[in-house]
Specification:
By secondary structure, the protein is of the alpha/beta class. 50% of the residues lie in helices and 9% in strands. It contains 13 helices and 6 strands.
């Protein structure tokens, strides 16, 4: 395998920026397969709320890691990293190009840079911290993290309680700082060269895209999909934007109109967190629209 000939095209950006459409066009240009790194599109039961490619789009080109597991399966960025890299090693034996696309920065980076060798923490630590989160809130956990690991406290996404809890459980279990385990920053995938592309429309355009997408989800049956998964609502995959808000409606906590509005607001907030992650990567070339990106690639 001539590594210099092998290229992994990485397409990233916030939700509703056009990554799916762009990746399909690029796939046709290079006649290659697409690997999805969207951490919610893995789950076969979750379709409407995760904005998966349509059946038509899935049939246009080969997609991998979509509908590959159940919400009942235990899955992580570590498992995905191993499976995606194993797929690429085999795929590149006969192909020169592949596309890695998604808005989940952790899952993208797990393939490119690998993951740090974190200890296996007993589940009881996470369960206890989740209970503290429910009773005392994120601010309390952040104050704890600041004491345990001031270094990681400065860089953690302070709106993402899952990342805060992950760091705290490691600190509490090992009596070491979480940041002391983060050593893989300079490692990089070795069986190919990388081409980084990002899609990020203007704030006005992105917000409009999000609102249109959410309205369409409602029209095609989001509430019915969420209702059908009610028995799984305590599982981590269902604690996602587009699902938690609808469960709040079913539980009588908010009106249907409020649920829809909250989905739009929370999706917008999520898109900003995605961009915060991706903007740290200086290798990404950014484009405001699909046409601009495709013209660059073609020329």
């Amino acid at each position: 395998m001539n590594i210099n000939k092998k290229k992994l095209i990485v397409v990233v950006g916030p939700t509703a920026s056009g990554k799916t459409e762009a990746s399909i066009i690029i796939s046709k240009i290079f006649n290659c397969d697409i690997i999805s790194a969207d951490s919610r599109q893995f789950y076969k039961e979750m379709t409407i709320g995760t904005a998966k490619p349509t059946i038509k789009e899935l049939n246009e080109v080969n997609h991998h890691f979509i509908n590959n597991i159940s919400v009942e399966d235990k899955y992580s960025s570590g498992i995905f990293s191993r499976e995606a890299n194993a797929f690429l090693n085999n795929y590149f034996l006969e192909n020169d190009y592949a596309i890695l696309v998604g808005g989940s920065g952790l899952f993208i980076d797990s393939v490119i840079y690998g993951l740090d060798d974190l200890p296996n923490v007993p589940e009881s630590f996470r369960n206890d911290l989740n209970e503290i989160y429910k009773k005392k809130g994120l601010k309390y956990l952040l104050n704890s993290l600041k004491i345990y690991d001031p270094k990681y406290f400065k860089e953690v996404d302070k709106k993402n309680h899952r990342r805060v809890i992950r760091a705290l459980e490691v600190c509490q279990y090992t009596n070491k700082s979480y940041s002391s385990y983060l050593t893989n920053k300079n490692k990089k995938i070795k069986n190919c060269s990388l081409m980084w592309y990002g899609l990020c429309p203007s704030k006005e355009k992105l917000r409009s895209n999000i609102n249109i997408r959410v309205d369409n989800m409602i029209k095609v049956g989001l509430f019915d999909e969420v209702k059908s998964l009610q028995k799984f609502k305590e599982l981590n995959p269902l604690k996602s934007v587009g699902y938690t808000e609808v469960y709040s409606y079913f539980e009588g906590k908010i009106s249907k109109k409020e649920a829809i509005n909250q989905i739009k607001i929370n999706t917008w907030k999520y898109s900003k967190r995605q961009m915060t992650w991706f903007k740290k990567n200086k290798e990404i070339k950014w484009y405001k629209c699909i046409d601009e990106l495709i013209n660059y690639i073609k020329n």
